[in-house]
Design a protein that fits this description.
Number of strands: 15
CATH class: Alpha Beta
Strand order of the largest sheet: 5-4-1-6-11-8-14
Number of helices: 8
CATH topology: Spore Coat Polysaccharide Biosynthesis Protein SpsA, Chain A
Structural class: alpha/beta
Amino acid sequence: MKAIILAAGFGSRLMPLTQNNPKCMVEYQGRKIIDYEITALREAGISKIAVVGGYLLEVLSAYLQDNFGIRDIYQNPAFDTSNMVKTLFCAREWVESCIRDKEDLIVSYADIVYFKESVCRLQSANAPLSIVVDKSWRNLWDRRFSNPLEDAETLKLAGNKIVELGKKAKSYEEIEGQYIGLFKFSASFLPEVLSFYDTLDRESTYEGKDFDNMYMTSFLQALIDRFHNAEAVEIYGNWCEIDFKSDLEINI
């Protein structure tokens, strides 16, 4: 199994902490955010880890090589005018290596803190597309927002199958969990993922965004609508997202 961390972003809402560091190198409780991710993956036995950087790539590259020996580092040169999906496919070579080597691929956002237990649950999932879902999300969102419904996104399930995620929620009944930014493609499904991505219309908009700025949730929803094979990997807290300076004060 391999993993890839999408770490191209600037993190404007964390300024001035991101003035001289990429967002993933901001410290949370004495450790850089990306330290938690790499540690969780390695403790779960995943040693093949790639990272896609963008903003201050040279800073991130030096840190990863010096502290973790990670040299599979890719670049999204358009990090300031594109989004997560674009960042992922800047490492197409890494994705294709998973197909060649018949290895599943875990995809991780770079602004989330999680631990070995969540990775192990994801590892053991057998679906073509397995998506980590926090069923206890309200515990975290109540601490982050005065009105959690303003920020939380829909996630609808049919049994263990995910049928919808990432849309603006009108009520709490539309939120059966929260997508955290951690998921896995099986090696056998990856060729379909690449083919599907290649056939998407570059001139269309996706939930109001142009192709290069498509949200990852929009891409996952498109895969769900096409293949109906996404399953929820349930967790109950023990993670957090670092998007605002106030998130740095939350203990998990």
